[in-house]
Design a protein that fits this description.
globular; binds zinc ion; 98 residues
Length: 98
């Protein structure tokens, strides 16, 4: 399957993660079998779902079959960035791991 979620946080999780059914989004910048894991960002008014993270490098939305949490590491295939999710002011942000 190759979900972009590579490493889930190590801390014990208080509640189980939600699972998500991913549908085709029309994103065509990655090979077909990975397309459902990404979508285009529609700008600042775009609402990210609990299983989505915005890549700060290429502004593509990364989608996982699992709910994403702070401490998770995800892979952005369109720009080949490895990202770590951090929480800032209650918002989940993706930061590039150098
Ligand atoms: Zn990216």
């Amino acid at each position: 399957m190759n979900d972009p979620l590579e490493t889930a946080r190590r801390a014990p999780e208080r509640r189980p993660r939600q699972s998500f059914e991913l549908e085709e989004t029309g994103f065509n910048e990655v090979p077909k079998r990975f397309r459902k894991f990404y979508r285009r960002w529609r700008g600042p008014k775009d609402k990210l779902a609990p299983n989505e993270a915005l890549c700060p490098v290429c502004k593509v939305v990364i989608r996982s079959t699992k709910e994403l949490r702070a401490g998770d590491r995800v892979y952005c295939m369109p720009c080949m960035s490895r990202l770590e999710l951090v929480e800032e002011n209650g918002v989940l942000l993706a930061k590039v791991i150098y």
